[in-house]
Structures are given as structure tokens and as C-alpha cells.
Design goal:
The protein has a single domain, classed as Helix Hairpins (Orthogonal Bundle), CATH 1.10.287.3510. The chain is elongated. The chain is mainly α. It is built from 3 helices and no strands. Helix 1 runs antiparallel to helix 2 and helix 2 packs antiparallel against helix 3.
């Protein structure tokens, strides 16, 4: 059995890597992957805490988050493909179509 403190530390490290990747990169694909990494870190923490407490609510919530993340990835990739067709780049700084 893995201690809960190790699971939480592992989750925090993965979440921090996702935050750094989302804030420091200019490529839209890397930003989307970093957001997915942050969602997976939250899932790891939820499953670890749920297992330590002894109920299934956290695990059910993690499955729901995985479903939402799959939809977010599909919509995000569709938006990136549509913007790439207009701008011919995947650089975040070049996407100013949605500004007011």
C-alpha cells in the first residue's frame, strides 16, 4: 500500500509540471497537453484520497473528470485545426481572432 503523502506529493509534482508547461510554452498543442496533465494530477489525488478514506466518491468523480477531459481535448483540437487553417501557425501569440 502506498502512503497517501506519497500520492499527494506525486500529484503536486505532476500538477506543477503541467502549470509550468502551460505558462511557459507558445505551442498550442503543448499547452493543451499541459492542461491534460493538470487534470490527470487532480485525478491521481482524488483516487488516492478516495482510497485512503475508503469510499468510491472520489473515484467516480475522477471518471467524470476523464470524460470531461476527453471532450475538452476533442473540442480543443478542433479549434486548433480551424485556427491553423486561417493563420498557418500553432503559436499562441498569433491567435488574436477571438479578441474584441
Amino acid at each position: 500500500m502506498i502512503p497517501l503523502s506519497h500520492v499527494i506529493i506525486f500529484s503536486l509534482v505532476i500538477f506543477f509540471i503541467g502549470v509550468v508547461g502551460a505558462l511557459s510554452r507558445r505551442n498550442v498543442f503543448i499547452v493543451l497537453m499541459s492542461i491534460e496533465l493538470m487534470l490527470n494530477a487532480v485525478n491521481i489525488a482524488l483516487i488516492g484520497i478516495s482510497s485512503a478514506v475508503g469510499n468510491l466518491i472520489g473515484q467516480v468523480l475522477a471518471i467524470f473528470i476523464i470524460c470531461v477531459a476527453a471532450g475538452e481535448a476533442a473540442v480543443g483540437m478542433a479549434i486548433v485545426v480551424a485556427l491553423y487553417r486561417n493563420r498557418f501557425t500553432v503559436n499562441v501569440d498569433a491567435f488574436n481572432l477571438m479578441k474584441w
